[in-house]
Specification:
The structure holds two protein chains of two kinds. Chain A is an alpha/beta fold. Chain A contains 14 helices and five strands. Helix content of chain A is 65%, strand content 10%. Chain A has a four-stranded mixed β-sheet with strand order 2-1-3-4, with helices on both faces. Chain A is elongated and about 95 Å long. The model of chain A has no long low-confidence stretch (mean pLDDT 83). Chain B folds into two domains: 238 residues, no CATH class; 101 residues, abc type-2 transporter like domain (abc type-2 transporter like fold, 3-Layer(aba) Sandwich). Helix content of chain B is 67%, strand content 10%. A four-stranded mixed β-sheet of chain B has the order 2-1-3-4, with helices on both faces. Classes of the chains: A alpha/beta, B alpha/beta. Chains A and B meet through helix 2, helix 4, strand 4, helix 6 and strand 5 of A and helix 2, helix 4, strand 4, helix 6 and strand 5 of B.
């Protein structure tokens, strides 16, 4: 116990006397929490519209006005020909061209039918799909308006209609930030937990100071605990700082208890730090360990459900997400913050995380050798 | 020149003999491409739903079956109260609940009006929106099937043409992005760390007293990484053409030329970072914060730049990856020639010149 106390003292001093580490630890959450949520706005809006109007009629003008006033589209370009409209798509000036044929109004009124052409820059498939759907919806609406104008008596044909009402639970304002910020916080402490601990040990290896520890009477488990505890505390401090920022900047107050978050986070950090330790027992140089931990956290973060829903992934990827500690914490974080889930709701998550913690730490301790070479 | 080559060889051996690092450097782009290509989609399918059917008649059953049969939804549960719906949501088991009121079919057939309530888990607003849209269009279909389809007068038809990517594949968007990301990572981050490593271990001193000019030493350090990154570009392009079916429409030569230009930009950024950083940890952190994150954020392949607040949009212009991303998209996917991207190329050339200039000027021959 006394040995451990000295080790902890050494580690904490090492951390606190290196100003760059502290700077990193507090700048990183600031930057990520302040900029990422602003950037991660996936709502599809501000679609740049180019119009090629060959008709120049009242109808075509009304249609364009209606599209613009929907709020999804910004009129960026008015071209005389489709070729020129296409050119502005090539230059990324517009995302979508609406071509209104000559005699659009006449055909519609006299021949009962008229065709519009919509060409979408589909490199970004999601944006293109939604943009296309939005504009079709608006055109249909416009069409309905014209129909009721021309067909004199209102169509009161008694048709069975199903009215669909919507309720958006847990986030009635559809605020994307409430969804993203808790997830980003998880990503943050994952990076801190996994890379800092492993870098720290490798640095001792690279500098040669590990030799001194290896010849001292310090036990394996003491050494590992001595490395684990300081970063565990540090990561919890960063989590606290992050939660505070989320509360002050975005007004995010969890519906559930902070205690639930902390209980889960402390188990989660054990698992992630264990992973970091495990990596450090394999790597020889800092460059190696940085790259490996970067690689692994990248895969973990991408497959965590932070940016894309897990249900959309193919079967094999969903299996991987079950083996990914990050996905559990992100789910828990969102459940607690947005839905107010309690400990009872997340018990399977807690059990799984305990399993991860035992597995990674056990492996790390087994694999740590006091012998060099 | 011979001396220079010897140094290049030394650096190459550094990388070559560190098999773990080499392994990751080579496999990283492969894994990224495969993950983005197959695992990460925003497409909504197989979303778990629950149905609360208070009426249990022919109509509600028909609609339930229609919902369950669609590829968007996966009916996992019938619930029997609002309370149960809430509990199921809270456990994170479902994304959407469909509620049919009492006497649904009766109301529909006799008063011509019936209601369905869709309750979405809006903690993820985008998915919630998409799900309710899909569900209501399925319900709409059912409603249409009840009435005879009649030809409507005054119809505007819309033909939608999806340019460049008719199947709306995600790959078209991220292949260029992953290229920018990997190049940034390999060139800037790895170079800066490897230079700082020599400082930290103390071998820099040995190198600095060698007869070779200091800046040549640095150039020699970058060349192996340049080779690795060219290998990465080749892997990414091969994978995207043969595995993801994303064709290279434009000129391959132009694409490779522009990629080399961007590689040089990234390398000079790496040198710049190594000038200021004292420890490998700082070098890594600086590259993450000032290169990797901005590339991820502002190149436009993951996050839509046009939705960002104006200050961020302005900042995005100084991120080299943004310009490279535009270039790759234009050449590779739209098939445009040099005339369409000369502006972006010029910006990259300018950035590279400035960065190289600063890093040459700041390069210290003396150790602190």
């Amino acid at each position: 116990m006394r040995v451990l106390k000295f080790l902890l003292q050494k580690e904490l001093r090492q951390i606190f006397r290196d100003p760059s580490i502290l700077k990193i630890l507090f700048i990183m959450p600031m930057v990520q929490l302040l900029i990422l949520p602003l950037a991660a706005d996936f709502e599809i809006k501000n679609i740049n519209l180019g119009v090629v109007d060959h008709d120049h009629s009242e109808y075509s003008r009304k249609l364009v006005t209606k599209i613009i006033s929907s709020g999804y589209f910004r009129l960026k370009d008015y071209s005389p020909s489709f070729r020129q409209g296409l050119h502005s798509i090539e230059l990324d000036k517009t995302d979508l061209i609406l071509e209104i044929p000559a005699h659009f109004e006449r055909d519609l009124v006299k021949e009962n039918q008229s065709t519009l052409l919509v060409a979408v820059n589909a490199i970004n498939g999601i944006k293109a799909g939604l943009g296309g759907a939005y504009i079709q919806g608006i055109i249909q609406d416009y069409n309905q308006g014209i129909r009721t104008q021309w067909i004199q008596q209102p169509r009161l044909l008694p048709q069975p209609t199903i009215e669909v009402s919507f309720s958006d639970w847990f986030n009635p304002n559809m605020n994307y930030r409430v969804f993203m910020v808790p997830g980003i916080l998880v990503m943050l402490i994952t990076i801190i937990g996994s890379s800092f601990a492993s870098n720290n040990i490798i640095r001792e290896k690279e500098m040669g100071t590990i030799e001194q520890i290896n010849v001292s009477p310090i036990k394996k488990s003491q050494f590992i605990l001595g490395k684990l505890i300081p970063f565990w505390l540090l990561a919890l401090a960063v989590l606290t700082f992050g939660l505070l920022l989320a509360r002050i900047v975005y007004g995010i107050v969890p519906l559930g208890h902070y205690i639930t978050i902390y209980i889960f986070a402390s188990i989660y950090l054990l698992a992630i730090l264990g992973l970091g330790l495990l990596l450090s027992t394999y790597a020889q140089t800092q460059q190696q360990s940085m790259l490996v931990s970067f690689f692994i956290t990248m895969i973990f973060n991408l497959l965590s459900g932070l940016f894309t829903p897990i249900e959309s992934m193919p079967e094999w990827a969903q299996v991987i997400t079950r083996l990914n500690p990050v996905s559990y914490f992100i789910e828990v974080m969102r459940m607690v913050v947005l839905k107010g889930s309690g400990l009872a709701d997340i018990k399977t998550h807690i059990l799984a995380m305990l399993g991860f913690a035992v597995f990674f730490n056990g492996w790390a301790i087994l694999n740590y050798r006091k012998r060099s070479g | 020149m011979n001396q220079f080559l010897v140094f290049v060889k030394k650096e190459w051996l550094h990388i070559w003999r560190d098999r773990r690092t080499l392994f990751i450097l080579i496999w990283m782009p492969v894994v990224q491409i495969l993950l983005y290509g197959f695992a990460l989609t925003n497409e909504v399918k197989n979303s778990r739903i629950a149905i609360f059917d208070q009426s249990r008649d022919l109509s509600t059953q028909a609609i339930s079956e229609k919902l369950a049969a669609s590829r968007y939804f996966n009916l996992i549960k019938n619930v029997y109260s609002y309370k149960e719906i809430e509990a199921t949501f809270r456990q994170g088991k479902i994304r959407l609940a469909v509620v049919f009121p009492n006497n649904f079919r009766n109301d529909l057939l006799h008063t011509n009006h019936a209601q369905i309530q869709l309750i979405a888990d809006a903690s993820d607003p985008n998915t919630a929106n998409t799900l309710t849209n899909y569900a209501s269009s399925i319900i709409n279909d059912y409603q249409q099937s009840l009435t005879q389809n009649e030809e409507l007068p005054y119809t505007i038809k819309t033909q939608v043409r999806m340019l460049y990517n008719p199947e709306l594949k995600g790959a078209y968007n991220f292949v260029p992005g992953v290229m920018a990301l990997v190049l940034m990572l390999v060139c800037a981050m790895m170079t800066s760390i490897s230079i700082v490593r020599e400082k930290e271990i103390g071998t820099m001193e040995v190198i600095l007293v060698s007869p070779l000019k200091p800046f040549r030493i640095i150039i020699a350090k970058t060349i192996p990484y340049l080779i690795v990154s060219l290998l990465n570009i080749a892997t990414i392009l091969l994978l995207s053409v043969f595995v993801l079916d994303v064709p290279i429409v434009g000129s391959l030569l132009l694409l490779i030329g522009e990629s080399i230009l961007f590689t040089v930009t990234a390398l000079s950024l790496g040198i710049l970072i190594s000038n200021t950083a004292k420890t490998q940890q700082t070098a890594q952190f600086t590259s993450m914060m000032s290169l990797f994150l901005p590339t991820l954020l502002f190149s436009g392949f993951l996050f839509p730049v046009e939705n960002m607040p104006i200050p961020l949009q302005v900042i995005s212009n100084i991120v080299p990856a943004k310009w490279y991303y535009i270039i790759v998209k234009s050449v590779m996917i739209k098939g445009l020639g040099f005339s369409a991207i000369w502006k972006e190329t010029l910006i990259l050339v300018g950035m590279t010149a400035v960065l190289l200039g600063i890093s040459i000027k700041n390069f210290k021959i003396r150790l602190s």
